[in-house]
TrEMBL record:
Taxonomic lineage: Eukaryota, Metazoa, Chordata, Craniata, Vertebrata
Chain ranges of the EML-like first beta-propeller domain: 299-584
GO annotation, cellular component aspect: cytoplasm; midbody; mitotic spindle microtubule; nucleus
Composition-biased stretches (Pro residues): 68-77, 135-150
Keywords: Cell cycle, Cell division, Coiled coil, Cytoplasm, Cytoskeleton, Microtubule, Mitosis, Repeat, WD repeat
Composition bias, Low complexity: 55-67, 155-164, 878-897
Alphabetized GO MF terms: microtubule binding
The protein, known as: Echinoderm microtubule-associated protein-like 3
Biased composition regions of type Polar residues, renumbered to the chain: 175-190
Domain EML-like second beta-propeller: 601-870
Region (Disordered): 1-21, 50-210, 877-897
Length: 897
């Protein structure tokens, strides 16, 4: 309906959609009824056929040819099961499936007139009988009862032409036509082997109880039934892959850096490696080449954290590292406990876990003591009171704790000359703490606070950073762009030492250093200080007396300065607010070594012939990444949010779908926009080229799939048609290998099939599409992948799915920060998988590169990009991930778990 909806049209439209859904469900039921009745007719005719066939000695008819089964699937039928749970649980129901080899591909009915007794089976394998009508508790397996056989002869019982009988006659004619077609297949007598489904099995064996054969499986998501037809090549579900795949993943590279909203996030270790974090991973990056470079570039990863890392501190020995994480929530929404890990950067082994259960919400700031070789660790959490605590690093024991302030705390640090002096700064405050425990006071001592007094100087809104000078003074950087020098008062400086010393600091000098906030201060080895500005993006080097020595400006597209670290020689490392790491010096300038997105990511596609991939998201940037060189090849500003993308099979152009209904086609070499089209005004969720590149399908949130014919070079397109029939927004779609058909999923869990070559027609008989082969498999709903859905799923737990090009494995991105690897096909309920953590937010997309050597995954809110190396069954590398049923993470190592 064009134009704005008039009064009352909204409810009317909803009513029409409801009726459409009911009609579709009824059509599915009618398909099953027709198929069952057709098989009943065939069986009735076969009852008289054996004698005539035996008398004449005629051979059994040859089986009619059928479409080839998908690769990796064994040849024909399936047991009939039901797994019932609550309305919100995922339920799996298997309905009658195709007959065994030698019979028809149509839906059978049970042989003989007796009903099968109902039974249930628990996960442990024990079985017990129950009533046929009882739904049973979740996890119960139950045969599906077929329609009573007494109903089937009615198709042949009458030839009445009265009006009341016409619909029945019409249905009977359709069934008879199907039966005639099915009779071309061989009879049961021509089968030489025993039916595996009816062969006896051991105790608790499901196979021994299966003598019904099915045509479909059915699962329920949020109470909605989803029927999936079993391909004719499936002999038994028990023969499908049942374990996790032999392939494993090893984290190869992490793109991005968390500079947008965190501090204390960039340091250089004794080895020369740069340590920083993004999502749940602490990255140890070794720059390649350059002045003072330690050798070839590369990354190692500490992956012991279970939620996003918020802060870092490096021990005075330059080897040990402390990292603190946020609390996060589990799958049920319950808050988890934040913790601090102390680990060895050389071995990546966890040495100490500090504060489990002692912190609230997260760990905001960390610092090692320096005067006593790093014996103590100071921690500030993110609770309302921002609790300040001191810990013994070697024993993991809390020595002192006190409420800090109700305002935000942004930085904490020990005085390098005296461990009894601790400083914190943040919103509208600088606090100087005296800890008596550093002097060996019994009962671990106490913490006493003195607040910094600004006096005649304007009190800034934020004191975001500070640094200790060699003479004991402190420099602070604030939101006004000022650097303040804090010195000890003369009266207190006469009583230096520990224990009872009550040192207070006052402002002795001020210098206006930057326009806007100062985000970072760094003391260099030569005694000078480097400051980094926010709004002006300047790096300024200061000598004694805060005299400016030299400066440099960071290019605007990298953002403001977030953190500064001194590298080897004269090299400087700079982290920026646009999630980039820069390397260089004040004289020669800076170049990026790590880059990333700055907002939520959704769009991902891989190049058809190179190890390159393209990403887009809410930061409106479209980025092409070189997977071999681990670098950004190019990026452009889309001006709008990019949500999906796909390369043309030639790789010459790429289509990008936006949140406004527009989609663009860009030349991958020149980065020029060669086509700009708008379909509706709602966001686009998927764009996909056909395997031959002749069509482009665009799935929209207006419930339609727009089909465009495309020129050979992909630069020009014209509207070919629309696929209309979904009752909710399009979520995923795939093309068939011949480029003529589309399979699509929608937001209300529909699976529809479309004949594009025949005019974008909806294929209402979905049973006929069961053997169609798909060029890609990214739809999250379908027979070949229904086993990836976990128990209790609400239908939104899986965001993305991708089958490998060799059709051996399928990767899944879920809403719980995990990447899963399943065997393909994954058509068994509760299928085990290999599970990999590292993302700190919902994983929005996964894709294999063109040769399946890598898998790329996108984090949502954490804006991270992970590149995983795919290792074969016999490949060397890190230990395999734990199966999904025991997804415990080894917090003390970087193994890919």
């Amino acid at each position: 309906m064009d134009g704005a909806a008039g009064p009352g049209e909204g409810p009317a439209q909803e009513g029409l959609q409801s009726l459409s859904r009911r009609l579709r469900v009824q059509e599915e039921e009618m398909e099953l009824v027709k198929a069952a009745l057709a098989e009943a007719l065939r069986l009735l005719r076969l009852q008289g056929a054996p004698s005539s066939l035996q008398g004449s000695g005629a051979p059994a008819p040859a089986r009619a040819s059928s479409p080839a089964a998908p690769p990796g699937l064994p040849p024909t039928c399936s047991p009939s099961l039901v797994s019932r749970g609550t309305q919100t649980d995922m339920e799996v129901e298997m309905e009658p499936s195709p007959g065994p080899p030698g019979l028809s591909n149509g839906p059978p009915v049970p042989q003989g007139g007796s009903e099968e007794p109902s039974w249930t089976q628990s996960e442990g394998g024990g079985s017990s009988s129950s009533g046929a009508g009882s739904p049973g508790p979740p996890g119960i397996l139950r045969p599906v009862q077929p329609p009573p056989r007494a109903d089937t002869p009615r198709r042949n019982s009458s030839s009445s032409s009265s009006p009341s009988e016409r619909p029945r006659q019409k249905l009977s004619r359709k069934a008879a036509s199907s039966a005639n077609l099915l009779l071309r297949s061989g009879s049961t007598e021509s089968r030489g082997g025993k039916d595996p489904l009816s062969s006896p099995g051991g105790p608790g064996s499901r196979r021994s109880n299966y003598n019904l054969e099915g045509i479909s499986v059915k699962m329920f998501l949020r109470g909605r039934p989803i029927t999936m037809y079993i391909p004719s090549g499936i002999r038994s579900l028990e023969e499908l892959p049942s374990g996790p795949p032999p392939e494993t993943l090893s984290l190869d590279w992490v793109y991005g850096y968390r500079g947008r909203d965190s501090r204390s996030n960039l340091f250089v270790l004794r080895s020369g490696e740069v340590v920083y974090f993004i999502a749940c991973v602490v990255v140890l990056y070794r720059p390649g080449g350059g002045p003072g470079g330690p050798g070839g570039g590369g990354q190692r990863h500490y992956r012991g954290h279970t939620d996003c890392v918020r802060c870092l501190a490096v021990h005075p020995d330059g080897v040990r590292v402390a990292s603190g994480q946020t609390a996060g929530v589990d799958k049920d929404g319950k808050p988890l406990q934040p913790v601090v890990h102390v680990w060895d950067s050389e071995t990546l082994l966890k040495l100490q876990e500090i504060g489990l259960g002692a912190f609230e919400r997260g760990v905001g700031a960390l610092a090692f003591s320096a005067a006593d070789q790093g014996a103590f660790l100071c921690v500030v959490d993110d609770s309302n009171e921002h609790m300040l605590s001191v810990w013994d690093c070697s024993r993991g024991m809390k020595l002192a704790e006190i409420k800090s302030t109700n305002e935000s705390v942004l930085a904490v640090g020990f005085s390098p000359r005296d461990s009894s002096c601790i400083v914190t700064s943040g919103k509208s405050h600088v606090h100087f703490w005296n800890w008596s425990g550093a002097a060996g006071v019994p009962a671990n001592g106490t913490l006493a606070r003195k607040q910094g007094v600004f006096g005649k100087y304007k009190k800034p809104k934020f004191i975001s950073c500070f640094v200790f000078l060699p003479d004991g003074d402190i420099l602070t950087g604030d939101s006004e762009g000022n650097i303040l020098t804090w010195g000890r008062s003369l009266s207190d400086s006469k009583t230096p030492g520990r224990g009872g010393a009550k040192e207070t600091y006052g402002i002795v000098a001020q210098a206006h250093a930057h326009e806007g906030s100062i985000f970072a201060l760094c003391l260099l080895r030569d005694g000078t200080v480097l400051s980094g500005g926010g709004r002006d993006r300047r790096l300024v080097q200061w000598g004694p007396g805060l005299v400016a020595l030299q400066e440099a400006e960071i290019p605007e597209h990298f953002g403001a300065v977030r953190a500064i670290a001194e590298g080897l020689g004269s090299e400087l490392l700079v982290g920026t607010t646009k999630n980039a790491l820069l390397r260089g010096d004040l004289t020669q300038g800076f170049s990026p070594v790590i880059q990333g997105h700055t907002d939520e990511l959704w769009g991902l596609c891989t190049h058809p012939s190179q190890n390159r991939f393209l990403t887009c998201g809410h930061d409106r940037q479209l980025c092409l990444w070189d997977g071999e060189g681990h670098a950004l090849a190019w990026s452009i500003d889309l001006k709008e949010t990019g949500l999906c993308a796909d390369f043309h099979p030639s790789g010459a152009v790429v289509a990008v779908g936006l949140n406004t209904g527009r989609w663009l086609v860009l030349d991958t070499e020149t980065r020029e926009i060669v086509s700009d089209v708008t379909d509706g005004n709602e966001q686009l969720s998927v764009v996909r080229y056909s395997p031959d590149g002749l069509y482009l399908a665009v799935g929209s949130h207006d419930n339609m799939i727009y089909i465009y014919s495309v020129s050979s070079d992909g630069a020009k397109s014209s509207r070919f048609g629309r696929c209309v029939g979904h009752s909710s927004f399009i979520t995923h779609l795939d093309w068939s290998k011949d480029g003529n058909f589309i399979m699509s999923n929608s937001g209300d869990y529909e699976i529809l099939y479309w004949d594009v070559a025949g005019g974008c027609k909806l294929l209402r008989n979905r049973y006929e599409s069961r053997d169609r082969e798909w060029a890609t498999y990214t739809c999250v709903l379908g027979f070949h992948v229904y086993g990836v859905w976990p128990d209790g799923s609400d239908g939104t737990d899986i965001n993305s799915l991708c089958r490998s090009h060799d059709e051996r494995v399928v990767a899944v991105a879920d809403d719980f920060c995990k990447v899963h690897l399943f065997q393909y096909p994954c058509a068994r309920a509760k299928a085990p998988s290999r599970v990999y953590g590292g993302h700190g937010s919902h994983v929005t997309s996964v894709r294999f590169t063109h040769d399946d050597s890598y898998l790329v995954s996108l984090g949502g809110k954490d804006a991270s990009i992970f590149q995983w190396r795919v290792l074969g069954a016999g490949g060397a590398g890190p230990a395999a991930a734990t199966p999904s049923r025991t997804p415990s993470l080894s917090p003390a190592s970087s193994l890919d778990v």
